[in-house]
Amino acid sequence: MEQLAPRQSNKLQVQANYNKLSDHIRRLTPQGVQCSVFCGGVNCKYENPENWKADSIAIQGIYSHWVTDDILAMARPSTLSIIQKNVIQQFESLGIKSIINLQCPKEHASCGQPLNESGFSYDPNMFMENNNIFQDNEKLQSPTSPTNDTYSAPSSPNPSESGDISDTFSEFSTLDGDDMGEELLLHNSCFKKLEIKRNFLQDQPAEDFNTQDATSLVDALLVDYHELGVPYRRAIRQYQNQINNSQLGWLRLSRETNLKILAALLYEWLENLKTPILTLHSFENIVILYKQTDACFRKIPVEDAYLIEYMLRFLSKVQPISKDDQEKMLKRFIAALAKQSIVINDKAIPSEKGFKKLSDGTFQCTMIFFQSLFDLIDNHHNQKSDLPNIEDNEDEDELYEEAYAVKTDEVV
């Protein structure tokens, strides 16, 4: 039998030998060709121990490292390497009693030796028949998981693909009776992130909601974006860039209190959608069915219906508000949803967008439909009926049937 590498606790952190760009390209590449294109297929270096020096082969014949005194990280073994390199006997001599499988079935199918019928590179029964405890990764945190053992954790051919090896095994720290020291945990980046998240959730103060005057809100929602001054336009452009490119924009948006900026961002989003919420087909149905609110509403695609319902529900909460202001806001919502201009206060809004003016006949039918739908939604929510939560209901059509006595039909 070949000489075994001495058992050490070097806590080696193995880094991937490619940068973030190439890693991103790998992740975007279809899984079926990843091995042959990037890993070398049967020549994958992580499947061939001849590619590594002795300090990278804690288990002879397999790319492997001791990451703690009791955890060995290793590339996946193959049936051939287990037999040729006496891997099971090596495990016994090193006191390895449990094996945690981090592979997914049929993962890296082209790397190294052909996969076993089990979908893995080796047959788990080979270890279990020799009194090794074998576990899949989803069972790691089970209360019945064995403790106080020395672990071997085979992963995909390249262990660094899942991140730092020390991070990969941080899950063991949650097992009862685990001997991983507090000092190791304190230096583990995954553990730090979990602690930060837990502290953040515990220390998060209650949100302080600012109340706004209804008149100010109406004025903000009826402002024409192109009439805003340069500072407003600059702020809105900055928001758009930040929201599209980083999380900072969303954080700023959650704290924004300027109603004109918030309204402008809403309209800019709606009016720059590739396809308007209210399409030509929607208006055809509205013109025909505008007096039959339920039948007309069920013709609208469910994702668009949710948005319309949300906006009208928001409008119903703006109180106190005059009937005239309510109609103006309905007009402004319709203009944004349809990406067409509508006359409000003797002026076509939105201006300078190049939108066509909604024809008078279509506009009248749409206003009647939206007003009826608004009244229906307002009355429904005022009754405070017990409705199922959208997040708890897997069938959205069923929810609509319960909430509004309508169901979503395919538009013909």
TrEMBL record:
Q: Which InterPro entries match?
A: Rho_GTPase_activation_prot
Q: Give the source's domain of life in one word.
A: Eukaryota
Which residue ranges does the record annotate as region Disordered?
A: 137-172
Record protein name field: Uncharacterized protein
